[in-house]
């Protein structure tokens, strides 16, 4: 009987090949990289203040991480605004830290918005919506984007878009005002639109919305809830940004005539009274730039948080003292907010007024923890509760 000696390096390479194949690709075709590196080790996470029992850690490193969408299989998709890419990240071993990161598309025009439906990833650029079909089966080689709709305005002022599918199966797409304050002749500006998943049937769902970069639906009523960024250049303390709800199509929330439900715009307020419009469910801080939001439905956090609206406030840029750079919570009863308070803060150095991070979007994981994207630090955080 002869003894067959197989070189170790051969066995090692075969092992690598098998691991890659089991993970859905091959060593020569895979384009993934590590989702967490040493780059995030120096982040001052200890500066983040939250209620007792909550903790924050790095879930993934994603440059200019903006809007997020989560598949039922746990793949997280992340868009950009100042960069040009769309990413996928995955936690492969269930430790609630992402292991791998893929670039799914690049060279895009402010691909801020991402949405997932029926296995397909939808991507919003300034003037168009595209998709990658069966995206999770081809993270290594996603191929070219397929056009869904390409007739949105090309203006980049408030042109980046948050997108999401509603309980009606339709894709909701905001079209921000192309200015700080103006009365555009094109009725599509300052709205939230919706369309079928194949790009047909576009209609305006809500009007008078200056710039919404985040919305969600109430888990019981199915009503749309959205944030809206208030106009600039009226001073430090007015107008407030807004949290609104739109239970039905055709509601008008006042822009550019009225702000915060009661503040007449100095340029356009004489054209229509504030009584013509829907008042905010909750006025937020002035210039806090509220973006992504989610209504908490999990069981990890203490029961008093269930049903509250978590809002990512990106932070002010045109205020004497900066404000925002935090996560807030709004308690709601029916269609009205009853309280508005800070949940997590510390991304802004109050003494120097220099931020090291800016929250953008919020998404809830299956265990009840939440993910928060940060485009300034290039990080996705996970906030959990151990009590």
Describe the structure.
- With 387 residues, the protein is mainly β.
- It has one domain: Neuraminidase (6 Propeller), CATH 2.120.10.
- Helix content is 4%, strand content 36%.
- The protein contains one helix and 30 strands.
- The chain has one helix at residues 8-22; strands at 33-34, 54-61, 68-70, 76-78, 86-90, 100-105, 113-117, 120-124, 129-132, 146-149, 164-165, 171-175, 191-195, 203-207, 215-217, 224-228, 240-246, 251-252, 258-259, 263-264, 282-286, 290-295, 309-313, 326-333, 336-345, 348-349, 354-355, 359-364, 370-374, 379-385.
- It has a five-stranded antiparallel beta sheet with strand order 1-6-5-4-3, with no helix packed on it. The chain has a five-stranded mixed beta sheet with strand order 11-12-13-14-18, with no helix packed on it. The protein has a four-stranded antiparallel beta sheet with strand order 2-30-29-28, with no helix packed on it.
- The longest helix is centred in the first third of the chain and has 15 residues, at 8-22.
- The radius of gyration is 22 Å and the shape is globular.
- The termini are far apart.
